[in-house]
Amino acid sequence: MVKICCIGAGYVGGPTMAVIALKCPKIEVAVVDISVSRIAAWNGDQLPIYEPGLEDVVKQCRGRNLFFSTDIENHVAEADIVFVSVNTPTKTQGLGAGKAADLTYWESAARMIADVSKSNKIVVEKSTVPVKTAEAIEKILTHNSREIKYQILSNPEFLAEGTAIQDLFNPDRVLIGGRETPEGQKAIQALKDVYAHWVPEDRIITTNLWSAELSKLAANAFLAQRISSVNAMSALCEATGADVTQVSHAIGKDTRIGPRFLNSSVGFGGSCFQKDILNLVYICECNGLTEVANYWKQVIKVNDYQKNRFVNRIVSSMFNTVSGKKIAILGFAFKKDTGDTRETPAIDVCKGLLGDKAKLSIYDPQVTEDQIQRDLSMKKFDWDHPIHLQPMSPPASKQVNVVWDAYQAAKDAHGVCILTEWDEFKTLDYQKIFDNMRKPAYIFDGRNILDVAKLREIGFIVYSIGKPL
Ligand code: NAD
Ligand code: UGA
């Protein structure tokens, strides 16, 4: 029986391994983590992450061939294939701070693998890492090896949150990079055999190590660039009377462009787009490719511009001040169908409004008050450094109130901001919301999910991204 161990029971490690366990009943899969509470949650009734369909998959395999454990060393020692899916955040200090990937967690995982291994292993990079990381990992592993042979593979993950299970069941492609030696090719084949349990062979792409590592950064950069491109157009639409939804539709009909990922928004968020582009920029700079670095940097700049533009629009339309005014924030997660708030645009929008002394009443169906208060009190890039984080919650801000109902959030508010495209926000009783708000009542739709004409008929003053005012 093949044994797999995955180091890191997070948004990637948990769902990915659960699907491998489901699809490969003859493979034993152990997911290990240094976080005792996270592992306890994976073993309990309330899983540590909200992801549609995940609970069902976990329930089918947990205790059968899927195990969650803090006994990291034993599981690693016994495994044939070790996935490493730890966090690779942006460095906050020292060389490359604010851009380079912090590989502290990866390096400590690699050192531990080298310390406890007693048999040959395939070590798989599941985390998103800078190109050439496999070379560094190889050095750590082989330096300490006592006759043990390691093969490093790069197998980046392309799932998106909110659709993780769907994406894992039916991936566009699985990418495996390895050494172009007979041993490297054998290792690639071993991992291919795992995925071949459910992924058609023509969707499993194999490359050299560096192409696989770079493809992951490139894929995220291209996706984010698409959003920044349409968001840049949204500003021009507002200035000219064009409607960004119509423009997206029109250009998306060109099969070379395609219709997906062209929704203009308050800005992209999530744990990876910004961090991976910054990482790409840093790698370009280190290779003396200034123009290439500047090109990709612009994707982040436009994203920051979009978030600032949204805040400025709110403040300027409310007579240039929101001081003391109640503003309802509907949605805090970085996208719908997830409780994840990492790098959510809501953080920047809320901080911008708080900077102008607004009073915020926030509602999100999946995000807790603790999480929101923590996010609003943390410095940029600090969120993904768990070892440095204080376990205590920061003192709650008096300017921020978190509620469990959209109507309560909007009661007596001067304005309502939609920051996440949760389906339930489309069907709220906006007449009721209007009746209970201060007048003039404003709606700022940062996700373009509302019917502007209907809202205007009710009496709202409406601002939607990239639409005529
Ligand atoms: P996460 O923070 O949810 O999970 C990482 C886990 O690793 C944490 O639970 C942490 O406690 C654990 N960990 C850290 N160091 C450890 C160690 N030495 N030993 C054992 N456990 C350790 O992160 P994530 O969202 O799952 O992302 C993981 C990686 O996957 C990142 O590189 C990310 O860029 C990449 N990725 C993420 C997504 C996504 O949608 N979140 C998608 C594709 C790729
Ligand atoms: C993204 C990629 O889609 C995954 O392929 C990748 O594996 C992952 O990053 C990663 O490496 O972490 P994710 O961040 O989970 O996945 O979610 P997306 O659906 O890509 O959305 C990212 C952000 O862009 C969200 O804030 C979303 O609201 C925003 N977005 C997305 C738009 O503003 N407009 C769009 O048209 C699409």
Outline the fold blueprint.
Layout: E1 3-7, H1 13-23, E2 28-32, H2 36-43, H3 54-61, E3 66-69, H4 72-78, E4 81-84, H5 104-116, E5 121-125, H6 133-143, E6 150-154, H7 164-169, E7 174-178, H8 182-195, E8 204-208, H9 209-240, H10 244-252, H11 273-286, H12 290-317, E9 326-330, H13 345-355, E10 359-363, H14 369-377, E11 400-402, H15 406-410, E12 415-418, H16 430-435, E13 442-445, H17 452-458, E14 461-464
Parallel strand pairs: 1-2, 1-4, 2-3, 4-5, 5-6, 7-8, 9-10, 9-12, 10-11, 12-13, 13-14
Helix pairs in contact: 1-3, 5-6, 9-11, 9-12, 11-12, 12-13
Bound molecules: nicotinamide-adenine-dinucleotide and uridine-5'-diphosphate-glucuronic acid (UGA).
Characterise this structure.
By secondary structure, the chain is α/β, with parallel strands linked by helices. It folds into two domains: 3-199, NAD(P)-binding Rossmann-like Domain (Rossmann fold), CATH 3.40.50.720; 218-464, NAD(P)-binding Rossmann-like Domain (Rossmann fold), CATH 3.40.50.720. The protein is built from 17 helices and 14 strands. It has helices spanning 13-23, 36-43, 54-61, 72-78, 104-116, 133-143, 164-169, 182-195, 209-240, 244-252, 273-286, 290-317, 345-355, 369-377, 406-410, 430-435, 452-458, and strands spanning 3-7, 28-32, 66-69, 81-84, 121-125, 150-154, 174-178, 204-208, 326-330, 359-363, 400-402, 415-418, 442-445, 461-464. The strands form three sheets. Strands 3-2-1-4-5-6 form a six-stranded parallel beta sheet, sandwiched between helices. The longest helix has 32 residues, at 209-240. It is globular, with a radius of gyration of 23 Å. Residues 7-13, 33-35, 38, 72, 85-88, 105, 108-109, 127-128, 157, 159, 161, 271-272, 386 line the site of nicotinamide-adenine-dinucleotide (NAD). Uridine-5'-diphosphate-glucuronic acid binds at residues 128, 157-161, 220, 223, 227, 261-263, 265, 268-273, 334-335. The active site is at residue 272.
